[in-house]
């Protein structure tokens, strides 16, 4: 039996973190202290100075634990991590868990790459962001690769120099093949430096140079080169326009303000980079009914910046941080950033105007979207929590991967993997697998192959790029199989081979092929049909099945088309693949006119007429046969 009075006597006068638990051994509160003995003892002294929230918490404390740290800063970091991990009932809690994308330039490599990442690592690379508009980030990187011949591969130089032939990107003019020694480091650096200038907003000089080159190409009657430059200039001007937004003159800053309603608050953040407002985002905070505005902003700063490694030069706040914690938080932020971080609460001037604007936006957002955001929360994270509860899992679930196998009487077997993070589909992480080692309709063996390949990809990604988030690097917290015991057994066999312990459940259907429940540890688990958890399971099962069927149908149609094209004179493997890429399915090729066929660059007039005539002859033969 835990004796609170006796345990209080044992507490040290040292900094650390204390963890309050209820009778069910659930963590209900996490706090930090400069002196653990003094801080924890306060909760169990006279209750007249305690708020109703603290009184309620203390009445539920069955025991407590503590972790001693060397410094108050270490206690602060540990407190943030434990709150994120356990989401205790009585802590002010940041409900959103967003990780924003950056544009990363690997200037620490011999031949740098440019790509999108959601991980900020102090590895010597150059990062631009975070940027809230993920679509705009991807479009910008795609445009950069079209404008400059920058490599996309993950080869390591000089280790991989000359080990393989240049890839397709070299042949289509989107890479200068440093892998084959076709460009020097000095020449390549000039290209990267220009791309970095563009990302930093130095557009004018680059665009003017390209305009001059376009005019020179036009005067030399090289209209093809002029057209390419024209298209590049248009793309650059489009991105430059999008980057301009409002120039605030505030350099790298985050502007933070709040709006309140009952037991929740909404924090609005403006992200300002290089003096330009690059985006904004809002965050719901719960358990705030008895907290001051300063306490809410203090907790937000601690939790938000413990989850993002990018710390701006300045935080511009609507309310000052708690006096007791301000100094230690400033030191903590400075230790992450590597140099001084300024925390400002402006009373006038441009910064004050920006804070007022953020505050107005927070009020509007809370009024317009507060209820919708809560409903969305219930459908996503709330649904995941329901699934975790019915399965009896102790650890937090964030990433769910679901798998299905599809084939036609054992032919064209394919596997599909869909991903849901925090209850939302993450389509960028979906993967398709064409079964390679299994012959016939053997779903058990096919599933083993799919999961083995998926985990091997994770291992390879982590080995090749330990500081980057690869396509497969992150493993799931829960695996769902579209099927029953056989599929679950296949998954567990593979996990055991790799020494992994990931919970696996099956999604089974009723006689009408509708989702009925989950199969876990050989037990059928049912959820109320109107619960958000059951609805999420249904969405996951429908989605993984749709994705598998869609891929299987595409392979089947392509096989049919490939078979038909084999009978056309002048259409070899290269042209067959090109036609497949361009038109997608058999019906579109059948209906294409000669000029449409000539849009495929691998086709000449003779080949296009052969395809056109072949399908028109087939139509004529079919029509005569029907008569």
SSE layout and pairings?
Layout: H1 4-10, E1 16-21, E2 27-33, H2 36-43, H3 52-59, E3 63-68, H4 72-86, E4 93-94, E5 102-105, E6 114-117, E7 126-128, H5 134-147, H6 168-171, H7 185-199, H8 203-219, H9 223-244, E8 253-261, E9 264-273, E10 276-286, H10 293-305, E11 314-317, H11 323-337, E12 342-344, H12 349-379, H13 381-391, E13 399-408, E14 411-421, E15 424-425, E16 431-434, H14 443-464, E17 478-481, H15 485-497, E18 504-509, E19 515-520, E20 523-525, H16 532-565, H17 573-583, H18 586-591, H19 594-597, H20 605-626
Parallel strand pairs: 8-11, 11-12, 13-17, 17-18
Antiparallel strand pairs: 1-2, 1-3, 4-10, 5-6, 5-7, 8-9, 9-10, 13-14, 14-15, 14-16, 18-19, 19-20
Helix pairs in contact: 4-11, 5-9, 8-9, 12-13, 13-16, 14-15
């Amino acid at each position: 039996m835990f004796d609170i009075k006796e345990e209080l006597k044992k507490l040290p006068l040292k900094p650390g973190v204390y963890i309050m638990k209820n009778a069910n051994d659930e963590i209900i509160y996490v706090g930090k202290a400069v002196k653990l003995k003094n801080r924890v003892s306060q909760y169990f002294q006279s209750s007249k100075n305690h708020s109703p929230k603290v009184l309620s918490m203390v009445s539920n404390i069955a025991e407590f634990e503590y972790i001693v740290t060397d410094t108050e800063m270490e206690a602060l970091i540990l407190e943030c991590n434990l709150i994120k991990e356990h989401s205790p009932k009585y802590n002010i809690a940041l409900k959103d868990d967003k990780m924003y994308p950056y544009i990363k330039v690997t200037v620490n490599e011999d031949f740098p790459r440019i790509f999108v990442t959601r991980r900020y690592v102090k590895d010597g690379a150059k990062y631009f962001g975070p940027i809230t508009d993920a679509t705009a980030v991807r479009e910008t990187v795609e445009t950069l690769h079209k404008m400059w011949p920058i490599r996309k591969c993950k080869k390591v130089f000089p280790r991989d120099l000359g080990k393989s032939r240049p890839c397709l990107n070299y042949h289509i003019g989107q890479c200068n093949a440093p892998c084959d020694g076709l460009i020097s480091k000095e020449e390549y650096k000039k290209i990267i430096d220009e791309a970095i200038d563009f990302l930093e907003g130095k557009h004018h000089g680059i665009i003017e140079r390209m305009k001059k080159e376009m005019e020179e190409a036009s005067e030399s009657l090289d209209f093809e080169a002029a057209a390419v430059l024209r298209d590049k200039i248009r793309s650059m001007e489009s991105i430059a326009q999008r980057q301009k937004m409002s120039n605030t003159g505030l350099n790298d800053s985050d502007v933070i303000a709040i709006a309140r309603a009952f037991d929740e608050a909404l924090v609005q953040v403006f992200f300002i980079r290089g003096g330009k407002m690059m985006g904004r985002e809002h965050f719901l905070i719960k358990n705030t009914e008895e907290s001051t505005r300063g306490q809410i902003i203090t907790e937000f700063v601690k939790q938000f910046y413990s989850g993002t490694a990018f710390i701006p030069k300045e935080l511009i706040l609507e309310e000052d941080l708690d006096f007791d914690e301000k100094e230690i938080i400033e030191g903590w932020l400075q230790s992450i950033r590597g140099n001084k971080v300024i925390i400002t609460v402006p009373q006038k001037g441009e910064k004050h105007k920006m804070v007022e604007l953020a505050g107005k936006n927070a009020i509007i957002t809370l009024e317009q979207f507060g209820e919708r955001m809560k409903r969305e929360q219930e459908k996503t994270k709330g649904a995941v929590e329901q699934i975790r509860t019915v399965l009896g899992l102790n650890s937090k679930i964030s990433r769910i991967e679901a798998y299905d196998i599809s084939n036609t009487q054992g032919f064209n077997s394919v596997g599909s993997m869909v991903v849901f993070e925090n209850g939302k589909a993450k389509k960028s992480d979906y993967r398709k697998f064409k079964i390679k080692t299994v012959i016939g309709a053997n779903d058990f063996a096919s599933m083993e192959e799919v999961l083995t390949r998926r985990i091997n990809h994770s291992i390879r990604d982590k080995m090749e790029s330990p500081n980057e988030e690869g396509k497969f690097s992150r493993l799931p917290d829960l695996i769902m199989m579209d099927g029953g015991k056989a599929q679950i057994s296949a998954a567990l066999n593979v996990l055991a081979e790799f020494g992994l312990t990931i919970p696996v459940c099956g999604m089974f259907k009723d006689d009408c092929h509708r989702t009925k429940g989950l199969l876990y540890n050989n037990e059928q688990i049912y959820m109320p049909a109107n619960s958000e958890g059951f609805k999420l399971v249904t969405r996951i099962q429908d989605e993984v099945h749709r994705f598998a069927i869609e891929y299987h149908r595409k392979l089947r149609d392509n096989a049919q088309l490939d078979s038909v094209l084999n009978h056309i004179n002048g259409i070899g493997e290269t042209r067959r693949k090109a036609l497949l890429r361009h038109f997608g399915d058999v019906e579109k090729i059948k209906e294409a006119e000669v000029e449409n066929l000539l849009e495929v660059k691998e086709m000449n007039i003779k080949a296009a007429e052969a395809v056109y005539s072949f399908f028109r002859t087939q139509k004529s033969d079919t029509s005569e046969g029907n008569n």
